[in-house]
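dude i think i finally got it to work??
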Amino acid sequence: MKSFKLVGLQLPGKTKNENEQSGKDCGELWQKFEVKKIADQIPGKVSDAIYAVYFDYESNEKGLFSYFIGCKVANDTQVPENLDELIIPEQTYHKEMAKGQMTGCITEAWKKIWNSDINRKFGFDFEVYDERSHNWENAEIDIYLSVKE
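look at this
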């Protein structure tokens, strides 16, 4: 997949999966994203899909990582002062799908990924929330995992 640019909000500092910490931190960032209607403030959007990105891994799923929520924009988009940008580099991906009731289906999908033998690169991994994720009773969310060649 070619590289692309996102504009949105980055979690200040890093988080980790231990003791449900990332669930709390990432959940708070989602809340801020929704309450402040960040998606409506993003210029140059190429779609309404929302990307949740896990990146800058310290090690693997047990270590610290950064988190970002945003929308894909045209590469020449100027980033508003109150928002952050993230460039997703060109990478090879393995695609999984979370399907079912939100947000439990996401948690289940990640547990399955952590227990799989997917040859993960721990580069930039992301979830894509598009029109298929709007029905929280029966959502479909694509999860892209960066993998080693």
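The two ends are 13 Å apart (CA to CA).
im so relieved honestly
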